[in-house]
C-alpha cells in the first residue's frame, strides 16, 4: 500500500521579526505546553521539535511531572527531537567551529535535561541554500537522515526529471564513501501546508484546518463531516499520490505546519480531528490500498528503509549519490538570495570575534582546571561553568538562519548584538581568571594584577580610540600573550602606547625588535601623545609569554617608521616632529620583504601588482572599490541595477605610506573606505602575503552595495574559481554567462581563489561575506550594503542600521610548483585544496594572540606552556572544550587535519596520508588517565584509546575528530 506519514510541526525561529524572548513568551511556550496536553490526549498524534534553545527556555519552568510526561512522549515515539542542536543554523556564513559548538551545546543540553534522546534526523527546511559541510558534520555526529527544502528551482526541476529527490549526499573528497548521509529534498517551494500536501496549492489550502477568530488566513478548509469525508479524502489522496510519484518507493512524507503553528490550543483539535477523520476513512477503503497516519520523521525514514529491505536493497545501493552544495538559492527566477552573504557585516564580524575569544577561554579554562585538579587545590574556576555556558549560548544562538544572515528586524539585530557583546565580556573575564591562575607563583598570590587589553581586531570594531597604555621608565608594563594555536607562532603585536621610545624584552629578558608607527588624529595630523608600538613575538604552542615594555631616552629603543604622503596638502603635520613626513615618490609606493614586492598606483595608492622575488615573476593584482546601484536588493536578495561602477569613488584620495623594519603599510583614505595594505618583514608564512584591512562606512549612502574588486592577470579562462565552505573545505564555482550578476555570488567564510596553470591568487578572510568572479581574472568581495526597501520575504524592512565596519584579509600570490605535481588518476577535477600557507594565514587572521596587561611583573610567572610540543604539521587544534558538568571526562579535544595542495605554493609538502599523534605526550603539565574517541557532538562513544601506546591517535586529511580526555 501507499504509506502516508503526516508530520505536524511548527517552524520556530529564535529571532526574526521578534526577539527570541518575545517569540517564546508570545508563541513557542504555548506551542510546547499545548503539545504536552494534546499528545497525551491524542495518542495517535505526533509532533517534532528542532531547536534545543526553545526547549531549554521552556524546561526551566516545567514541573517534574510535566518533564516526565515529555520523556514519556519521546520514548513512545510520539514526540521526536529532530536536529536537536541549539538552533537550526544558517549554512552560508558560519564557520564550522560555531556549527559544531552549537551542535554540542544542544546535545549536551538534551543529555543534562535527562531526555535520553539521540537525534537521528535533520530537519532543516528554512536555511536559504545548503552547504556540503553540514551533511558531513551531521554524519560525523551520528545522524542517519536529512530533510532539506530551499533549493534553486532549476535544480529541483532537474532532480524531479531524474526522480532523485532522495539521494546519498557525499563529499567530493570522500573516496571510500564513508561520510555520506541519506537526504530527502522536499519537492515544492515552502514548508507550509499550502506547499506540502501535493502539487496543487489550492487543493492543499483546503486541508489547513486552523481557524482562529479574527485571524486572516489563506486557508479554504471546511470541517470534515460524514457527508464530505469521501469527496475530501479522494481530493487529498490525489495530491498524496501525485507527490509520491516523485519518489522511488511507496512512502510519502506530508508535513502539516508553518511558522509558529500550534500555539493556539484549538488548532491542535482542529488539525487532529479533521485529519484523523480523513485517515480513518482512507484506511477503511481496502481498494484504495493506502495507509495514512500521523508520524514523525523517524517514522517516515523507518518506512523507507523497510521498503528498501522489501526490495532486497538499501538506501546506499538504491539511491543515487550527489556531491556539492545548493548555493545560490532562488525561489522566483531572477531573484537570488545572495545578498545575505554580506548583510550586516558588522554583526557577522562580531560573531567571529566571540568565536575566537570563546575558544581561547575554553582552552585556558580546561588547562587551569586540569592543573588545579592535579594539584588537588581549588582553582576558583569551577564557578566559571555557568558563565562559560552563557557565552557558548550567546554564540550558538546567533548561528540561527535569521541571526548571522542579517535577515532579522533591526531591533532584533540589537538584541543579538547585546548577547554577542555579553559573550565577549564574559569570556574576557574567564580568560583573565584562568591566566591569573596559570601564572600564579603560589596559591596565595595577589590576584587581579592582570587585565585584558583590547587587541587590534577588537579596537577596529569599537568606534572610540582606546586610551594609550602608559609606559614609564621605572616600572614598565608587562604584556602577556596567549597563543591558542597548537603550533609555534610568530605574531606582530600592536599596542597603543603614550611614548615613542621604548625597549621590549621577552620572557628570557632578551630584547626583541620593535617599531613605532604614528597614530593619526585626523586625516593628516599625527598625535604627539599616542603611538603604535609593533613588536615581533615568537610564541610556543598553547602558551603564555610575558614581554616587558620600558620607556627609554628619546632616540634609543624602537625604530621610528618613515612616512610619505600623496595627494596631501603641504605642511599638514604640525604636531609631531620626530616623524619625518615627505612626499611619496615611486620608490615609496611599493612594499617589499625578502619574498615579494608589491607596487601601488601613484594616483590612487591602490595595489597594482605582486612580484614573487625568487623567480622574478609579476602578477597584476589591481585593487579598487566599486558600487552597485540596488534595484530589488534587500536583506535577503541581491538585485543590482547593472554592473558595479567606481564613479562615486575619490580618484585622488589621501595616501600615506609607512616604512619600518617589521611592518610597512599603505593607507588610502576614501570617503567610504579606509583601506590599508600591510607587509610583514618576517621569514615565515606571515611574510608570504599582504594583509588588507578595510574600514567601511556606508551611512551616507542610499540603495548602494560596495565591493572590493581585484583585476588580475590570472587566466581562469573557463570561468572557474573556488570558495571555502564554512572554513572546512573548498568547492569549485563557475561563472555562468547569461545569468545575472547576483546569480554568480557565493558565500565566502575563510578563503577564495582564482588560478591558472602557473599562478594561484588567494584571498583569505577573517569574516564571512559574499564573493564572486564576474569575468576572467576578476574577483570581488561585497563589503557592505545599505538598502531602503524590503525585499518581500516577510521581513518588512530594508537594511539601514549600517555601522562603521572593519574587514580583514590576506592576499597571497602563489606560483605553481610543477615538480611536486604527480598525476593522480582517481582525483576529481572538482577536488581542490588551499596550500598549507593559506591554512596557516587563515589561522593567523582568526586566532591572533590574546593580549593582557600586568603592572606587577614580579607577582607572576613569566610564562606557561600548555602543550609540550607542536601538533604535527597540518593538524589544527579546533578546541579544547571544557566539560562543565561531568560526563566522565574533563575536556573535549577537537582536532582537524587539513587537506592541502602541493601544486601551488612554496611550502615543502611531504605529509603522510595518515599521521599519528600521542595525546599522552601532548600536554605539558597534565597527565592523561583516560582518553576515548567520540562522535563529533559527543552523543556516542566510539573507541577507548590505549594508555600503553600513549593514547595514540591517527588522522587522515579532512578528518575532524572529537576525543574525551580525563
Ligand atoms: Zn526560519
TrEMBL record:
<dbReference type="GO" id="GO:0046872">
    <property type="term" value="F:metal ion binding"/>
</dbReference>
<feature type="domain" description="Glycoside hydrolase family 38 central">
    <location>
        <begin position="335"/>
        <end position="420"/>
    </location>
</feature>
<keyword id="KW-0479">Metal-binding</keyword>
<dbReference type="Pfam" id="PF09261">
    <property type="entry name" value="Alpha-mann_mid"/>
</dbReference>
<dbReference type="InterPro" id="IPR011013">
    <property type="entry name" value="Gal_mutarotase_sf_dom"/>
</dbReference>
<keyword id="KW-0326">Glycosidase</keyword>
<protein>
    <recommendedName>
        <fullName>Alpha-mannosidase</fullName>
        <ecNumber>3.2.1.-</ecNumber>
    </recommendedName>
</protein>
<dbReference type="Pfam" id="PF01074">
    <property type="entry name" value="Glyco_hydro_38N"/>
</dbReference>
<comment type="similarity">
    <text>Belongs to the glycosyl hydrolase 38 family.</text>
</comment>
<dbReference type="InterPro" id="IPR027291">
    <property type="entry name" value="Glyco_hydro_38_N_sf"/>
</dbReference>
<dbReference type="InterPro" id="IPR015341">
    <property type="entry name" value="Glyco_hydro_38_cen"/>
</dbReference>
<dbReference type="InterPro" id="IPR050843">
    <property type="entry name" value="Glycosyl_Hydrlase_38"/>
</dbReference>
<dbReference type="InterPro" id="IPR013780">
    <property type="entry name" value="Glyco_hydro_b"/>
</dbReference>
<dbReference type="Pfam" id="PF07748">
    <property type="entry name" value="Glyco_hydro_38C"/>
</dbReference>
<dbReference type="GO" id="GO:0030246">
    <property type="term" value="F:carbohydrate binding"/>
</dbReference>
<dbReference type="InterPro" id="IPR037094">
    <property type="entry name" value="Glyco_hydro_38_cen_sf"/>
</dbReference>
<dbReference type="InterPro" id="IPR000602">
    <property type="entry name" value="Glyco_hydro_38_N"/>
</dbReference>
<dbReference type="GO" id="GO:0004572">
    <property type="term" value="F:mannosyl-oligosaccharide 1,3-1,6-alpha-mannosidase activity"/>
</dbReference>
<dbReference type="InterPro" id="IPR011682">
    <property type="entry name" value="Glyco_hydro_38_C"/>
</dbReference>
<dbReference type="GO" id="GO:0006491">
    <property type="term" value="P:N-glycan processing"/>
</dbReference>
<keyword id="KW-1015">Disulfide bond</keyword>
<dbReference type="GO" id="GO:0000139">
    <property type="term" value="C:Golgi membrane"/>
</dbReference>
<dbReference type="InterPro" id="IPR028995">
    <property type="entry name" value="Glyco_hydro_57/38_cen_sf"/>
</dbReference>
<dbReference type="GO" id="GO:0006013">
    <property type="term" value="P:mannose metabolic process"/>
</dbReference>
<comment type="function">
    <text>Catalyzes the first committed step in the biosynthesis of complex N-glycans. It controls conversion of high mannose to complex N-glycans; the final hydrolytic step in the N-glycan maturation pathway.</text>
</comment>
<dbReference type="InterPro" id="IPR011330">
    <property type="entry name" value="Glyco_hydro/deAcase_b/a-brl"/>
</dbReference>
<keyword id="KW-0378">Hydrolase</keyword>
<keyword id="KW-0862">Zinc</keyword>
Amino acid at each position: 500500500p501507499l504509506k502516508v506519514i503526516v508530520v505536524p510541526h511548527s517552524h520556530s525561529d529564535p529571532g526574526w521579526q521578534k526577539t527570541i524572548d518575545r517569540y517564546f513568551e508570545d508563541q513557542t511556550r504555548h506551542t510546547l505546553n499545548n503539545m504536552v496536553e494534546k499528545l497525551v490526549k491524542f495518542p495517535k498524534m505526533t509532533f517534532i521539535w528542532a531547536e534545543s534553545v526553545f526547549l531549554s527556555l521552556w524546561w526551566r519552568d516545567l514541573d517534574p511531572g510535566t518533564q516526565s510526561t515529555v520523556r514519556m512522549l519521546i520514548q513512545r515515539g510520539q514526540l521526536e527531537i529532530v536536529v536537536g542542536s541549539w538552533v537550526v543554523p544558517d549554512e552560508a556564513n558560519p564557520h564550522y567551529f560555531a556549527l559544531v559548538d552549537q551542535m554540542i551545546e544542544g546535545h549536551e543540553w538534551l543529555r543534562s535535561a535527562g531526555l535520553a534522546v539521540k537525534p537521528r534526523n535533520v530537519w532543516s527546511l528554512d536555511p536559504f541554500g545548503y552547504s556540503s559541510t553540514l551533511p558531513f558534520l551531521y554524519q560525523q555526529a551520528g545522524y542517519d537522515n536529512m530533510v532539506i527544502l530551499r533549493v534553486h528551482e532549476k535544480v529541483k526541476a532537474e532532480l524531479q526529471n531524474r526522480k532523485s529527490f532522495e539521494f546519498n549526499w557525499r563529499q567530493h573528497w570522500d573516496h571510500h564513501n564513508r561520510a555520506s548521509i541519506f537526504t530527502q529534498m522536499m519537492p515544492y517551494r515552502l514548508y507550509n501546508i499550502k506547499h506540502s500536501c501535493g502539487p496543487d496549492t489550492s487543493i492543499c489550502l483546503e486541508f489547513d484546518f486552523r481557524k482562529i477568530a479574527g485571524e486572516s488566513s489563506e486557508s479554504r478548509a471546511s470541517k470534515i463531516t460524514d457527508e464530505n469525508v469521501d469527496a475530501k479524502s479522494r481530493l487529498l489522496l490525489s495530491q498524496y499520490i501525485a507527490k509520491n510519484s516523485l519518489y522511488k518507493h511507496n512512502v510519502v512524507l506530508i508535513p502539516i505546519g508553518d511558522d509558529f503553528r500550534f500555539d493556539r490550543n484549538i488548532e491542535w483539535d482542529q488539525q487532529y480531528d479533521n485529519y484523523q477523520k480523513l485517515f480513518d476513512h482512507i484506511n477503511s477503503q481496502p481498494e484504495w490500498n493506502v495507509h495514512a497516519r500521523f508520524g514523525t520523521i523517524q517514522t517516515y525514514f523507518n518506512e523507507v528503509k523497510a521498503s528498501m529491505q522489501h526490495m532486497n536493497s538499501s538506501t546506499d545501493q538504491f539511491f543515487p549519490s550527489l556531491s556539492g552544495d545548493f548555493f545560490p538559492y532562488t525561489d522566483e527566477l531572477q531573484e537570488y538570495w545572495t545578498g545575505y552573504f554580506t548583510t550586516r557585516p558588522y554583526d557577522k564580524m562580531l560573531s567571529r570575534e566571540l568565536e575566537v575569544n570563546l575558544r581561547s577561554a575554553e582552552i585556558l579554562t580546561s588547562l587551569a582546571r586540569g592543573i588545579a585538579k592535579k594539584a588537588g587545590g581549588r582553582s576558583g574556576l569551577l564557578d566559571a561553568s555557568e558563565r562559560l555556558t552563557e557565552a557558548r549560548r550567546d554564540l550558538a544562538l546567533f548561528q540561527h538562519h535569521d541571526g548571522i544572515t542579517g535577515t532579522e528586524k533591526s531591533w532584533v539585530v540589537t538584541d543579538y548584538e547585546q548577547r554577542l557583546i555579553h559573550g565577549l565580556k564574559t569570556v574576557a573575564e574567564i580568560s583573565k581568571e584562568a591566566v591569573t591562575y596559570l601564572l600564579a607563583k603560589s596559591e596565595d598570590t595577589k590576584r587581579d594584577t592582570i587585565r585584558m587589553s583590547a587587541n587590534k581586531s577588537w579596537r577596529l570594531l569599537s568606534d572610540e580610540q582606546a586610551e594609550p597604555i602608559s609606559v614609564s621608565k621605572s616600572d614598565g608594563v608587562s604584556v602577556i600573550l596567549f597563543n591558542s594555536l597548537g603550533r609555534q607562532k610568530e605574531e606582530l603585536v600592536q599596542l597603543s602606547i603614550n611614548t615613542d621610545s621604548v625597549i621590549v624584552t621577552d620572557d628570557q629578558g632578551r630584547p626583541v625588535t620593535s617599531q613605532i608607527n604614528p597614530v593619526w588624529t585626523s586625516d593628516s595630523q599625527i598625535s604627539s601623545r599616542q603611538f603604535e608600538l609593533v613588536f615581533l613575538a615568537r610564541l610556543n604552542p598553547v602558551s603564555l609569554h610575558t614581554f616587558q615594555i620600558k620607556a627609554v631616552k628619546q632616540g634609543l629603543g624602537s625604530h621610528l617608521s618613515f612616512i610619505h604622503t600623496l595627494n596631501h596638502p603641504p605642511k599638514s603635520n604640525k604636531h609631531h616632529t620626530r616623524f619625518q613626513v615627505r612626499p611619496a615618490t615611486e620608490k615609496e609606493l611599493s612594499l617589499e620583504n625578502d619574498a615579494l614586492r608589491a607596487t601601488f598606483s601613484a594616483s590612487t595608492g591602490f595595489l597594482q601588482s605582486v612580484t614573487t622575488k625568487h623567480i622574478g615573476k609579476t602578477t597584476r593584482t589591481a585593487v579598487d572599490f566599486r558600487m552597485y546601484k540596488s534595484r530589488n536588493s534587500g536583506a535577503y536578495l541581491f538585485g543590482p541595477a547593472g554592473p558595479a561602477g567606481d564613479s562615486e569613488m575619490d580618484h585622488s584620495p589621501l595616501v600615506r605610506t609607512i616604512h619600518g623594519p617589521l611592518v610597512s603599510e599603505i593607507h588610502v583614505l576614501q570617503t567610504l573606505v579606509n583601506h590599508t595594505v600591510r607587509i610583514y618583514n618576517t621569514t615565515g608564512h606571515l611574510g608570504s602575503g599582504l594583509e588588507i584591512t578595510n574600514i567601511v562606512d556606508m551611512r551616507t549612502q542610499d540603495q548602494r552595495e560596495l565591493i572590493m574588486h581585484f583585476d588580475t592577470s590570472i587566466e581562469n579562462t573557463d570561468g572557474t574559481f573556488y570558495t571555502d565552505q564554512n572554513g572546512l573545505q573548498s568547492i569549485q564555482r563557475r561563472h555562468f554567462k547569461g545569468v545575472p550578476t547576483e546569480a554568480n555570488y557565493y558565500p565566502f567564510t575563510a578563503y577564495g581563489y582564482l588560478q591558472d596553470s602557473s599562478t594561484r591568487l588567494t584571498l583569505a578572510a577573517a569574516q564571512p561575506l559574499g564573493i564572486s568572479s564576474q569575468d576572467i581574472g576578476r574577483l570581488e568581495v561585497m563589503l557592505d550594503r545599505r538598502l531602503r526597501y524590503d525585499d518581500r520575504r516577510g521581513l518588512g524592512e530594508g537594511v539601514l542600521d549600517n555601522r562603521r565596519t572593519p574587514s580583514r584579509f590576506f592576499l597571497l600570490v602563489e606560483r605553481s610548483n610543477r615538480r611536486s605535481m604527480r598525476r593522480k588518476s582517481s582525483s576529481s577535477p572538482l577536488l581542490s585544496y588551499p596550500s598549507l600557507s593559506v591554512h596557516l594565514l587563515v589561522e593567523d587572521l582568526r586566532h591572533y594572540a590574546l593580549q593582557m596587561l600586568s603592572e606587577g611583573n614580579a607577582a607572576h610567572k613569566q610564562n606557561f606552556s600548555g602543550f609540550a610540543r607542536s601538533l604535527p604539521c597540518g593538524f589544527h587544534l579546533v578546541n579544547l572544550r571544557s566539560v562543565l558538568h561531568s560526563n566522565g571526562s574533563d575536556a573535549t579535544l577537537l582536532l582537524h587535519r587539513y587537506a592541502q595542495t602541493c601544486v601551488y605554493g612554496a611550502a615543502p609538502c611531504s605529509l603522510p596520508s595518515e599521521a599519528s599523534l600521542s595525546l599522552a605526550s601532548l600536554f605539558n603539565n597534565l597527565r592523561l588517565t583516560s582518553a576515548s574517541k567520540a562522535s563529533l557532538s559527543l552523543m556516542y562513544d566510539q573507541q577507548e584509546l590505549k594508555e600503553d601506546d600513549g593514547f595514540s591517535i591517527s588522522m587522515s586529511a579532512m578528518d575532524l575528530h572529537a576525543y574525551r580526555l580525563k
